[in-house]
Amino acid sequence: MNQAVSSTMNKHLFPVRALWVACASVCLAAAWLPNVSAQTPTSAASRPAVIRSADFIVAVVNSEPITNQEVQTLGLRLQREAQAQGRPVDAPEAKQLALEQLINDKAQLQQARDAGIVVDDEALDQAEAGVASNNQLSREALRQRLQQDGVALTTFREQLRNQLLLNRVREREVEARIRISDIEVEQFLQGQLKAQAARAPAELNLAMILIAVPENGTEEQIKPLEAQAHDVARRARSGDNFAELAKTFSQTADRGANGGALGLRPADRYPELFVQAVAALPVGGVSEVLRSGAGFHVLKVLERQLAPATLMATQTRARHILLRLTPQLTQAQALAQLSALRQDIVSGKADFAESAKRLSQDGSAAQGGDLGWASPGMFVPEFEQTMNRLRPGQVAEPLASRFGVHLIEVTDRRDAPMSEAEQGALARNVLREKKLDEAFAAWAEDVRGRAYVELREPVQ
Q1: pLDDT at 68 over 60
Q2: What angle do CA 158, 159, 165 make, to 5 degrees?
Q3: d(Cα 89, Cα 143) in Å, to the nearest integer?
Q4: What is the CATH number of the domain that holds 298?
Q5: pLDDT at 44
Q6: So what's the pLDDT on residue 201?
Q7: Which residues have CB under 8 Å from 157's CB, separation 6+?
Q8: What is this structure's pTM?
């Protein structure tokens, strides 16, 4: 997509949606492992002090209590996350937000259980592995980290199970409410094309006749030249051949060669004076006489092309080296191996393509790891997010995904027209995102409204 369209569309196509849509492992990674990227133990002295006020019930949702300690813990987490995003909130506001979130979650969890939704141990294990992968850790290292941060494994897994339950009930209940018609898709695409055309300058091909004015010319010298320019403009508007007039009168360096045609180019590559002068002219129209520092100009519009009636997508060409995890190769070992290889590639001691042919464990190895041109959404999110942050020629730090550990290099980037199928898929994704947010808000409000909520003691 061109940059303007890309930023608008990507904001909708790949948003970080509400928690119910996001991967539970990502949510829990943020919740439990705020400093995990450092991968260094947290000493007791450096950890925030734990609030040790006496615990008590602050609210009851149907038959389930919410304790003061639950609110305090979530409130601290919300404060930490808000601060990391540059929008700090004070403690009372964080506690109120935490209480509201816990009430909503309790009501929705009860609905999930009433609907018979369950999360088995296999799904829980996969989610735990996802948390580890997103934080570039093995499951063993993840559990060690939790222990260092004072989080019991049973507590972590129970919270993770609850998050999966919430995701599933929200998806099931809300997805059924979403309907997208072909008319909505067509209207959306027409709106995007119209917005793109407004942002993209038209291309113009102008012909010009220049009657040059001497530098520091006197009024007596300039006046007859201006009269000549007006006479040429009059003749051109009366039907005289503009190309012949250019060859006869134009005082450009090429003496009116090519009939004075300047060539098809984006409007913003012409002087603003020229663009404004021909803005209202049809193809074939001749302008009034214009004065610039060079002299007097007469312009004719030879051609005008509007922006192409298709959406553009930013495509990336990347290559990678993939190491798959085995009992003999742990995630930590693969990360260390590719980190060392990256240093050799960046310093020029190793060649990426040759290293990919020798080491990579996927089908792209024979092509030096080349993955070809990729449109948005072709790769798994963790891979694509890292790739999109790279400039051509940059090599990322090793990345763990569900497939193994990758070393990624971006080799090129371009804007390419989207096919009709891609445009349709894009439109449905954007409309679905918008309707999901609206439908989720309505559903959550409905669940909250049907729940019996008793507020007891104020949060301390």
Answers
A1: yes
A2: 90
A3: 30
A4: 3.10.50.40
A5: 37
A6: 64
A7: 124, 128
A8: 0.50
